Amino acid sequence: xxxxxxxxxxxxxxxxxxxxxxxxxxxxxxxxxxxxxxxxxxxxxxxxxxxxxxxxxxxxxxxxxxxxxxxxxxxxxxxxxxxxxxxxxxxxxxxxxxxxxxxxxxxxxxxxxxxxxxxxxxxxxxxxxxxxxxxxxxxxxxxxxxxxxxxxxxxxxxx
Length: 159
Known about the structure:
Blueprint: H1 3-8, H2 12-34, H3 39-55, H4 58-63, E1 65-73, E2 78-81, H5 83-91, E3 99-111, E4 114-124, E5 130-142, E6 145-155
């Protein structure tokens, strides 16, 4: 069919525009999907952290952190250095482990081998006292897994 005839057929221009729009959209969105490698694993990290603390799996908890990690907690003014010290801090709750639930993942970003993540949590202590807070994580992708480099926890403002 000659081009002049095809262009004048009803709906040809709209079909062409839809195809161009779809092709352009896919071309623009494809790099975004590729630019976030291991994002799903990053989004699972806070849940793993909460489970290890709640279940008393302090060896596994330590493995979530880099050996020189930093944990800063505003609500008890703790600043802990290194995966060992962080695990020992949580092991101090042995016998009355808190139940930690990640209530929301607000945002996560992956840039090369660095992941940034923020969200909210609630901690229920043995006496049923509940503390709500927010966390921020800076993580590194090393040897096929995310490890926490910096964690900042802050108590949520009362509602």
